[in-house]
Design a protein that fits this description.
By secondary structure, the chain is an alpha+beta fold. The protein contains 14 helices and 26 strands.
């Protein structure tokens, strides 16, 4: 296939626009010819209970937003759900099946394409004030066209729509509950994790929005992330668009929020969403699963059985219909353990971690219980190693969900361009549960430095799987100064089997991140006696 014939890049590669379009056509006409039996049954049930129509919502500044409505007739009081679209040229069509399922359960529903995407006018505002106003206008539109009283209101979104949903809930007091799938809490942290620019994520967002109409400000901000320009201005832009900034409004009203996320999320890493989750004081629930962005919930978008969407329905049934279905008593957190797929419920996120085990970085590449000072491990910058975050944004997560996680061959990691520390073989299964923390000191020969730390689970044959990772950049220290990095690796739930070793790899380049190092510069890692370098492992 030549490049011109390749399909456009999508953050949702599993979605089939043709199949979704056929489903919507059947909703309009009642002709289910060609639909799979399950989809045909859903169409028949929905049409017997509700009226499906397409429409246009008059959004902020008079821009018309493409929308679809599922409405019940009669004067019976009903709850309603508003669904802002994901970051895709499909717009609201991505929600066609799930919105139909909500309608069949008695909800009035509106799904709409966010401004600048698909059939909606306006320009992409990235969950800015215009998008927040659009969400409220979509709610107005549905209320005005509902024949009975409105009881309670929920906002649900996947990815882009999830951030918009949280922000609308923070600004519009009519919103009673939120479901936010593959979401963000702090957009600035997602773009600049530990001062390191997430260039691969921003490139993926731009490619996925190739058919969208970005506002000049949006294009400028994305360009700034890619080039490293105007970091302060971009962080101010991101602050307005971060639900974490508006958490007081959500807490004041005790808005119930259900989050889902993936452990190896490459667009919006989990820790920034966890920080948002931990600060919420109202009813809340978080599901963390194997995979990458939108992967854990994708089968449900396609109409297949999916535990994330099942819980989303239960969340709204409980908080919008006052149904006692048990979800309020099941604990705030449920995690899927890599790679066993075991589900572990816990009452809170902090209760996931029962104790910490500290391993020190020592001379000779040992990761052990005793601190050791005075050693140096030097890394040459400018060269990549087999230790990387993933092969591809989003898509690598689908291989993980299929039980085919990336295999790292640790013997191929060049020790001149990476520093490596390895623990003793595990005498019994090590249950990593929570957020590992790394403290390491290094000397950078030049101004500006970046490293990426990877925690690997290494089998006796030297093959390994990625447990977690984190980048770090220092952009201000003078040349040849000692820099102390104290960082959290991304949260994890991982069982290291007996006989396997934990391996910490630190290198100076990864294509997922911007690189502040000068070519051929060096980073010399060490462990001062007063502040030894160590890795804290959360055990549960």
């Amino acid at each position: 296939m030549n490049p011109a014939a390749q399909p456009p890049f999508s953050l949702y590669p599993e979605l089939d626009a043709t199949a979704l379009g056929a489903f919507v056509s059947a909703l309009e006409s009642g002709d289910v010819t060609g639909l799979p039996p399950a989809r045909a049954a859903e169409v028949a049930e929905a049409r017997a209970l509700a009226v499906f129509t397409r429409g246009k919502v008059t959004g902020a500044d008079g821009d018309l937003l493409d929308a679809a409505l599922w409405r019940h007739t009669g004067a019976r009081p009903r709850p309603m759900i508003v669904m802002p679209s994901p970051w895709t040229s499909l717009g609201w069509l991505a929600y066609a099946v799930q919105a139909t399922l909500f309608a069949a359960r008695g909800y009035n529903v509106i799904a709409y394409s966010a401004r600048g995407f698909a059939g909606s006018e306006g320009q992409v505002d990235v969950a800015g004030p215009l998008d927040v106003a659009d969400g409220s206008r979509a709610l107005d539109h549905l209320i005005e066209r509902s024949t009975g009283p409105v009881t309670k209101i929920g906002f649900l979104g996947d990815s882009y729509g999830s951030g918009i949903s949280q922000l609308v809930a923070a600004h519009d007091t009519r919103v009673d509950a939120v479901v936010a799938l593959s979401t963000w809490g702090d957009l600035g942290e997602a773009f600049y994790e530990n001062s390191t620019r997430h260039v691969a994520a921003v490139k993926a967002l731009l490619k996925a929005a190739a058919k969208a109409r970005l506002s000049p400000q949006t294009q400028s901000v994305f360009d700034n992330v890619l080039t490293g320009s105007d970091v302060r201005g971009t962080l101010r832009w991101a602050e307005v668009r971060s639900p974490f900034t508006h958490i007081k409004e959500l807490n004041r009203r005790q808005v119930p929020v259900f989050f889902s996320h993936a452990w190896h999320e490459t667009l919006f890493p989990a820790n920034q969403t966890l920080r948002m989750f931990n600060e919420l004081t109202g009813p809340k629930r978080l599901a963390l699963s194997i995979g990458d962005h939108s992967g854990p919930e994708m089968s449900g978008v396609l109409g297949l059985p999916n535990r994330i969407w099942t819980d989303a329905h239960r969340w709204f049934d409980h908080h919008l219909k006052d149904i006692d279905n048990g979800i309020g008593d099941e604990g705030q957190f449920i995690g899927e353990v890599m790679w066993s797929k075991t589900l572990e419920p816990r009452p809170t996120w902090p209760s996931v971690t029962e104790q910490l085990q500290r391993l020190y970085l020592a001379d000779g590449g040992e990761l052990g219980p005793e601190a050791e000072a005075g050693w140096t491990s030097t890394v040459l910058c400018g060269m990549d190693t087999p230790a990387t975050v993933a092969d591809r944004v989003v898509e690598s997560g689908y291989a993980e969900m299929a039980g085919r996680p990336k295999i790292y061959l640790t013997e191929d990691i060049d020790r001149t361009v990476a520093a490596v520390w390895t623990a003793e073989p595990a005498a019994e299964t090590v249950r990593l549960r929570g957020t590992p923390r790394l403290r390491v000191t290094y000397r950078a020969a030049n101004p500006g430095s970046t490293f990426v730390a990877y925690l690997l689970d290494t089998a006796p044959d030297g093959s390994a799987h990625l447990v977690t990772h984190a980048p770090y950049s220092d952009l201000e220290s003078p040349p040849d100064s000692l820099i102390s990095a104290d960082i959290e690796l991304q949260a994890t739930a991982y069982d290291v089997q007996r006989g396997h070793r934990l391996m910490l790899v630190i290198d100076a380049r990864d294509p997922f991140y911007a690189d502040a190092n000068l070519p051929r510069a060096t980073l010399a890692f060490t462990s001062p006696e007063a502040t030894p370098s160590y890795l804290d492992l959360p055990l549960g």
